[in-house]
Every structure is written in C-alpha cells, then in structure tokens.
Please model this.
Amino acid sequence: MTELLKPDAQALEKAARIIKDGGVVAFPTETVYGLGADAGNPDAIARIFAAKGRPQDNPLIAHIWDVSMLPGVISGELPPWARALADRFWPGPLTMILPKGERVCPDCTAQLDSVGVRLPGNEWARELIKASGVPIAAPSANTSGRPSPTTAAHVYDDMKGRIPLILDGGQAKVGVESTVIDARTFPVRILRPGGITKEMILGALGDVEVDAGVMRPLAQNEVARSPGMKYRHYAPKGSLTIVEGEAEKAAGKIIELYDGFGGEKCIFAAEAHLPMYGGRNAVSLGKDKREAAQKLFALLREMDDLGVQAIFSEAVDETDIGLAVMNRMGRAAAFNIIKV
Ligand code: TXA
Ligand code: MG
Model:
C-alpha cells in the first residue's frame, strides 16, 4: 500500500518517522520529486536502489536542510568558490560534488570518495530533512530510465506498492533536476545543467567549465565524470527526433518527417510556432525555455501513456535554462539531433 498525503505537520512527522526507521519516502522538491532515505544507513540506501531498479554504481546525492548540517556530510571545509555558490544559490537547484564525509555511508555514493550535496529550495523538503535529523539521500523518484517525476501522480505511477508514502506538494516548479557541478577544483565544472545556469555560475565566480558529456554521447573509451552520464535517461517508449535550426526551416523539416511517418505521432513546438503545423498533432512546449523545462518530463510521460511511437521536436536555444532542456531532450533522443 502506498499512501499519498499533503505535506502538513502530521504527514511530515509520519514521513520523518519512516526515514528514521530506515524506510523510503517520496517527497517534493523544487526540481523534481525525490525518493528519500537516511544517507547514513546502508539498508535504507539499498531500499532506494531496489525501488528504482537503479544500477548499483550510480551514486545518490545527499540533501541537507541547512548549511549547519554540512560537517560530516562533506569532509573538511567548503572551498572558497563553493562557499560563494552556497551563499548565492542555496537553498536552490544546485548540487555540489565535494569530498565525502563519514555521515554518508559508502553505498550512498557507490563507494566513491566524493558526495553530491544539495540544499533544496522546497520548504517541505527542508522541513522533512530537519524533522528526520539526518541527511537524506534522494535520487529522482522515477523508475530508472523513465522521465523524472514532476507531480505526485507521476511518482505514484512508478512507485505504487514499492514505497509506503508519497508527500504530494503539487507540481515541481523547475521541472528538471538540479545542476550538478564538480566543486572540488576551480574552475568548477558542470556535469549536469539545471536551474542554476552556467550564466549564473559564471556571474558568481567569473569562470566555469561545461563537461563535454553534457551535449553529446560519451565515446566508447571515455570515462564518465558523473556515473549518471553513462545511462540512457528519460528514454520515451517511442522515438524522439530533435530538429534544430531557424524556426521556419525547422518546422518544414519536422512537417516532412511527421507526414512521412506511419504510426502514432506528435510534434513538440514552442507555443508561438503551433500555427505553423496546421492541423497536425502539435503540442506546446510552452511560451519560453522556463516553461519548456517545467513541462518536458510530463509531456514525455503523457506521450508514453498515449502510445505515441514517434515525437518530432523543435530545439530550444542552449542559453540559460535552455541548456538543461536540450541536455534532457538530447539524452531522451539518444542525441538524435538533425540540424537544418
Ligand atoms: O534535482 C535533483 O537533483 C533531484 C532531486 C530529488 O533533488 N535528484 C536527482 O538525483 O536528480 P539523481 O540521482 O536522479 O541524479 C543525481 C546525478 C546522477 O547523474 C549521479 O550520477 C550524479 O548526480 N552524482 C551523484 N553523486 C555523484 C558523485 N559523487 N560524483 C559524480 N556524480 C554524482
Ligand atoms: Mg534521476
């Protein structure tokens, strides 16, 4: 039995009790829903991996409610550049990879000597961590390989019968997972783009690198700096093809591909471009990049539910949160991107 509760004081107490007892609870964050358990308890960590069907070598990130919880989660002090980012962007959608402390068990980080730490912006998430009294390990609350859940209903679809409780905090605001950076050295390096953008980090620190794995697949012999990069994420059941280029040209190519495809199909397009697709099955990616980030995972899930076999999507420009959108779309498409 999986219970769905609005996160009031009573539900939070119940959730915190489950976490303290070594169980798993799904909870809202500002990015996507997380599947949380005590980061220091290997049995609890094993339950997360089992519920998701997650590969054992993919580490989990540890969530803290306040910077006062950092000692022991990381070892040593925050380097000055990491402190500057924490001051500016925490609470918020930023995960920093730092040397692991003893409060996080080795299974949580898949035996790595580093740990990803995040101080989430969602108040319910922070309340839950505070009430639990332990750092909470939490991957996105989807079955491994599915799009991350942005509503409690998405979590329920994937986790019903596998976990006792889902806290329903409504729709996630950002819609894509946190920015992951390697913060052990300067300049910091973006391993996964998200709501704290390259431009924002550049503005705060004056320098930033973007890992090559962000916008292309890894070569056979290449070592992933972040284990998550190895896996094909967000794979829709049908195929996804992205067409990148000037709006009218891209629309022309999308129409050609769409009209030539025989099965269940749809088009993802910017709201303003919908009229270009005539009577075809075109759905809106929203008015801007921010809305596209919010809607993308829900749209991919919806198309799976409808049995869509081919999606043809416009690209969004790769500035600001557009880089995160294109990273997720690119991975969902196995980087099948046509340039026109
Ligand atoms: O927004 C988010 O970050 C959500 C919410 C729930 O907080 N969580 C999330 O976790 O997206 P997950 O496990 O789905 O993605 C974490 C990513 C993975 O790609 C993982 O490989 C990488 O971060 N990661 C975690 N720890 C790492 C480490 N020590 N070194 C390198 N990469 C790491
Ligand atoms: Mg995930």
Q: What stands out?
A: Residues 139-140, 148 surround magnesium ion (ligand 2) (CB under 6 Å). The radius of gyration is 20 Å.
